[in-house]
């Protein structure tokens, strides 16, 4: 999927071997985990803008935009050759949309019914499921589901540059958040035999998404890819606010998001 005219500085592209020390993962052995929360609660920061556009904050309208951004993120991943994709969500509409698009949907326990909840718990649950289900996977990607300008070209580059024996991550535009976190499943210390409530192995690496997640991932030993933030503007533009949406629009939105915005 190549909808965005993202400038890539050829001088800034690192040869694969410098960072990875081995061949890059074949995209077909990468498992990607996404998470989308309940559509009625999602994107509350966008609500004001959407309410102006559609005369009242209509959660259905907001939900369509969330679904569209999720589908554009998935389309960009697929264009990069990533086919093992699972989304964790407590929302039936998200799961139904996933089914229709041949994405595996994993129902998440409704809020309040589990001792662990929130984005990191959802990501962890999806990662365990992916590890058990796609056992020959070599790499795990946690990807934010609100990247409507994401291009396959950027995902391909990121996969080429992920470090082989450590986790790697890409920050958002301002450098404080995380849009993508990578872990090698071949790195044995990432895996632990301890049983979790679902009776499966627990990933010994906890995603630390949330406020200041870039610092949290750095502190946990993950390698920041392109720390100068000169590349992958399309991936770095997660959409939470009207300003983010304008920035994504400037870069080039995916087809689903363009269509959803048309109905606002
Ligand atoms: N499955 C799941 N996804 C979540 C959960 N919390 C957040 N997410 C997803 O993680 C991403 C970032 O979430 P947040 O920044 O907390 O919320 P948001 O919906 O993006 O925006 P705000 O409502 O404005 O905070 C979004 O794609 C959410 O749908 C959760 O508890 N479960
Ligand atoms: C959860 C995160 O982002 P946001 O809240 O901006 O979606 C994050 O950057 O870790």
UniProtKB/TrEMBL annotation:
Q: Which Gene3D superfamilies match?
A: Spore Coat Polysaccharide Biosynthesis Protein SpsA, Chain A
**Chain sites annotated for binding phosphoenolpyruvate:** 178, 210, 213
Domain of life, per the record?
Bacteria
User: Which InterPro entries has this protein been placed in?
Assistant: CofC, MobA-like_NTP_Trfase, Nucleotide-diphossugar_trans
Q: Supply one GO molecular-function term.
A: phospholactate guanylyltransferase activity
Pathway entry? Cofactor biosynthesis; coenzyme F420 biosynthesis
Q: Which keywords, in A-to-Z order, does the entry hold?
A: GTP-binding, Nucleotide-binding, Nucleotidyltransferase, Transferase
Q: Record keywords: tRNA processing included?
A: no
Is Flavoprotein found in the keyword set?
no
Identify the EC number(s).
2.7.7.105
Q: Which family does it belong to?
A: Belongs to the CofC family.
Function per UniProt = Guanylyltransferase that catalyzes the activation of phosphoenolpyruvate (PEP) as enolpyruvoyl-2-diphospho-5'-guanosine, via the condensation of PEP with GTP. It is involved in the biosynthesis of coenzyme F420, a hydride carrier cofactor.
Q: What is this protein called?
A: Phosphoenolpyruvate guanylyltransferase
Q: Which organism is it from?
A: Gordonia jinghuaiqii
**Lineage of the species this protein comes from:** Bacteria, Bacillati, Actinomycetota, Actinomycetes, Mycobacteriales
